[in-house]
Amino acid sequence: MADDERGEAVLAAATAAASREFGDDLVAAYTLGSLAHGGFAPAVSDVDLALVLRETGGGTASRVHDVVAAARDAAAGTDGLAERLSVFWADPETVRHGRGGRPARLPAVDRLDLLDSGVLRHGTDVRDGAVPPTHDELVRGSAAFLVERVDDAWLAGVADPAALLARGPRPVTKTVLFPVRFLHTLATGEIGRNDAAVASYDGAHRDLVTAALRWRGGALGERVAAWTLLTDHLAGLYRECVDAHLAALPGDDPAVTGLRALRDALTLLGASST
Asked: What residues contact 97, with CB distance under 8 A and at least 6 apart?
């Protein structure tokens, strides 16, 4: 089975599981991410699906979790791709306008991906009349992700490149390319697709950034060279990303305090590696 076909098998299993779980309340399902707009790398890419539900509520997240579990069981023979299934969800109004107040899992950048490149695979297209997220919404979303996801466990990978390398190409490339994609979105207001983000990056850590794009093919190459690049550049790349977002956000933005704390932690990592 070809790489894209294995990804499609996972999406088909997830769509079928969602249809069983939500019935007529499943308004639409879309393929998102690299399987929709290109650049799928089977060794490292996620398999992204968006569900549009007639209504969402406090129990929706649990029901989507059950959909993911059922899909992973049904698509177990896809060489690990089923474990990388990521399901986004929202109601039609949130898809079209991104307004808060309704339970959803559809960050601004993923909503933009759905509006720009999502491939309808089930139901009725709800994108007519949609208003894409603003540049400010995208930047705030990136900042929130940095604060929420770059936790102590994530920083441990930044601090210990040898341990990060031992986990394989997927965690390495995700760790390196997330801040590059955020910097691209900050500069352009566009989705930070890996190829475009790397092409537009002109900072001090370009050697690591371009190497990470090669590593998406599944091979890290010579380990000492990879370790050296990560040791010399990874913490600095994150500091560059955090500083850029701090400069772009107003001082009263909710993410600023978390970004400053993250900046302090990254500065300590840089000092400890010298």
From this structure: 130, 131
The DSSP string of the chain is: --HHHHHHHHHHHHHHHHHHHHGGGEEEEEEETHHHHS---TTT--EEEEEEES---TTHHHHHHHHHHHHHHHTTTSTTGGGGEEEEEE-HHHHHH--SSS--B--HHHHHHHHHH-EEEEE----TT--PPPHHHHHHHHHHHHHHHS-HHHHHHHH-HHHHHHT-HHHHHHHHHHHHHHHHHHHHSS---HHHHHHH--STTHHHHHHHHHHTTS---SHHHHHHHHHHHHHHHHHHHHHHHHHHS-TT-TTHHHHHHHHHHHHHHHHHT-
How far is the C-alpha of 22 from the C-alpha of 70, rounded, in Å? 13
pLDDT of residue 268: 87
Task: Give the Cα separation of 59 and 70 in Å (integer).
Answer: 17
User: From the centroid of its chain, how far is CA 158?
Assistant: 18
Q: CB–CB of 30/49 below 8 Å? A: yes
- pTM for the whole thing? 0.93
Q: What is the pLDDT at residue 274? A: 47
Closest CA to 50 of 82, 23, 28, 22: 28
Give the total residue count for the chain. 274
Q: What local confidence, expressed as pLDDT, does residue 217 receive?
A: 87
The predicted structure's pLDDT at residue 262: 96
The pLDDT, as a whole number, for residue 77 is 83
Q: Which residues of the chain have pLDDT under 50?
A: 274
Separation CA 22–CA 86 (nearest Å): 18
CB 245 within 8 A of CB 146: yes
